[in-house]
Amino acid sequence: MVRGRDEPDVAQWLPYDLTAQFDGLVPDRAELVMAALMVTLCRWTAASEVALAVADWRANSSDAPQVIRLHLDDRMTIGDFLRTVATARGAQATDEAVGGPVDLVVVSDHSDLRSAKIGFVTDVPDVAHGFVADLAAAVTELMSVDGALRDVRCIAPERRRILDSLAGAEVPAVAIDTMFLDQVSRHPHLVAVRDATVELTYEQLTQAADQHADSLWHAGVRPGATVLVATRRSVGEVVALLAIIRLGAAYSGFDDDAPPTRAQRIINKLAPAAAVVDAASTDHPGLRGLARVEVWRPGPDLGTCTGPTRPPVPTDPGRAAYVAFTSGSTGEPKGVVVPHKAVTRLALTTDLQMRPGDRVLRMAPLAFDASTYEIWVTLLAGATLEVYPAKLPSVGHLEAFLADREISVAWIPASLFRLIARSRPHAFAGLRQIVSGGEVVPHESTARMLDLHHGLVVTNGYGPTENTTFTTTHTVRSSAEVDGPLPIGRPIAGTRVFVLDRNARLVPPGAVGELYAAGVGLANGYLGDEHETTRRFEHFSPDVNERLYRTGDLVRLDPHGRLLFLGRADDQIKLDGHRIETGEISAALGRHPDVRDAVIVVAKRESKSVQLVAAVAMHPGADADPRSLRAYLSQILPSYMLPALWVVVEEIPLTRNGKVDAQILIDSALSA
């Protein structure tokens, strides 16, 4: 018997009726249970190697437990794997000693394991019970000795139903203009959009968009074309977007802060038919050579508009609505082509639904896909867009704007949410809902805001651009619901998600895997890049017969059926032969009472050596001593996971899009 650090929190017998089936089916009952345990552990942990500490299998012994280490090769047959286990059993394996407590124990009073009791040291009993159910399923699967090891999934039938339920409500595929015109007919005289000088009702917005669409048509814009929108946030910007949609074309937001070379690469890839410009952008060097159309401005003829002079365009939910550019691994921008149906499914999601009378903050850059949520979910619900005037928000100015415009719903990036919650917590008074994301939403800030503002709900929105702004959401209404890091939640409408292993096979509920998304929210692909589209979108799984997008994010299901975000799959590095998840280190640092925020980045020297860099932001008045923090980590993590370099910052630096600016942290650490 191998003893844990304490008596197990959960102990459960492997069902006797199952172990009774072993007789005559396999050569050795003990080897089958050990093999099942190894496979189940690998499926649950996404590992390809497992080490088991075992005492004498065949007789009582006071000898110290020894370690059997096996590599799980999914190319094996089940019979080959069972023979490998038998060989390891006979050899009694390695010279490794058991250096510490263990969390899982298999105990039997019989050398052939005709009865076996499983004990766990765990804070989550449901996880232990699920593991036993999956272990029992693995035992049954391993009895088919001629089968392939890769087909042993270790998922109990009743738990497979949990995986099948990871889907949002089914929604129809609808075009943006179809849903918008429905709101126009319902609420023609409600205000649709307002900036500092202009406001338009839904009826007026339609008229203005038709006027502007005629201008774009005469400039050469046709269905299927793309139009670059290079304007400041304004009513005119919204008019331009609706006009482009009404033409059957797609828009793309222009980032005038992008380096000139990147901006030119984007324009070359996009090949826009025209650019919508305002006074600030009309002379931008990146727009030279493009047909330019002045942004719409109100005129005396708005109320007398007789309708479009161009031919009508049939609606098509699968047609491109916009193109959003993200960074590619090669440094080349990738244009994500998003269809209408992917956008409209956002407006049909319960957690995101707005209503007539809501006043919604319009603040995100158009080149950032949070603007999709702000603009279209608002206009497809009969609510009012309130356009924030400043290019970059200051906390004080934003607080005044929220109060002056009586904003009820706002997208607030996670970094800004954290800052406001700490420095101006009353800024959110009057809001009905905050949707946040872009990075990990701070749960401490969430709990504080919910305690302070009764009636407020906070929604954690997760998702890559390739699945149109949001893939999953999790809404909390009370601080009592916040007992740790916020889940990313459940799939939104029209979305299905799958947690898969490195072979694109389903992992058991509760196990770590990579998140894949499917459904009407998927982008059409990458503009002009069939190879990358195939690599990221056409990844077919033996367990999932539909088009998938591979997010690159590691997640697991909690006992309540909610997804927990664990970090990036590519956050796993190999250092001195050890595989390390950087998210595990930052999470451990974040539990230190003096640490307000922490992140781990990887620095690569010219010698190609790799070093871990810890960046920490401390609570006010806390001692920022890296030596004490390192000592704290050394009590939790093995030595090879301790950061070599440390940098203390006031705030974790972020890029324009709200991501951690790793290069700034690396430069600071290396120059210290």
Automatic annotation (TrEMBL):
It comes from the Bacteria. PROSITE patterns: AMP_BINDING. Residues 584-659 form the AMP-binding enzyme C-terminal domain. SUPFAM superfamilies: Acetyl-CoA synthetase-like. Gene3D superfamilies: 3.30.300.30, 3.40.50.980, Luciferase, Domain 3. GO terms for cellular component: cytosol; enterobactin synthetase complex. One of its GO terms (biological process) is enterobactin biosynthetic process. GO terms for molecular function: 2,3-dihydroxybenzoate-serine ligase activity; phosphopantetheine binding. Residues 182-527 form the AMP-dependent synthetase/ligase domain. This is Amino acid adenylation domain-containing protein. It comes from Parafrankia colletiae.
